[in-house]
Amino acid sequence: MQFSNVTAVAKANVYFDGKVVSHSILFADESKKTLGLIYPGSYHFGTEAAERMEISEGECEVQLDGQGEKKTYAAGTYFDVPAKSGFTIAVSQGICQYVCSFLS
Known about the structure:
By secondary structure, this protein is mostly beta strands. Helix content is 0%, strand content 62%. It has a single domain (6-103), classed as Jelly Rolls (Sandwich), CATH 2.60.120.10.
């Protein structure tokens, strides 16, 4: 996956003592994505805006808030998270890489 004509924000978004790290990229149409890495562990995130998490490398297990079922996502798959919600994402081995798109 490659993005052209974007502005990259150099300051990293660092969560959970550096176990989840992302960088923001800004598009001319004012949309934003983050590109990130998740190291092994389990992490909960809240959302303000709806998000699409595309897994670009590795594998993770995800449980959306309010849903009992966990699902596994591998490279080339994605999951959507509703606005004002959240999810728990777990990586058991290796590094999971993702692209997060903020949906309107």
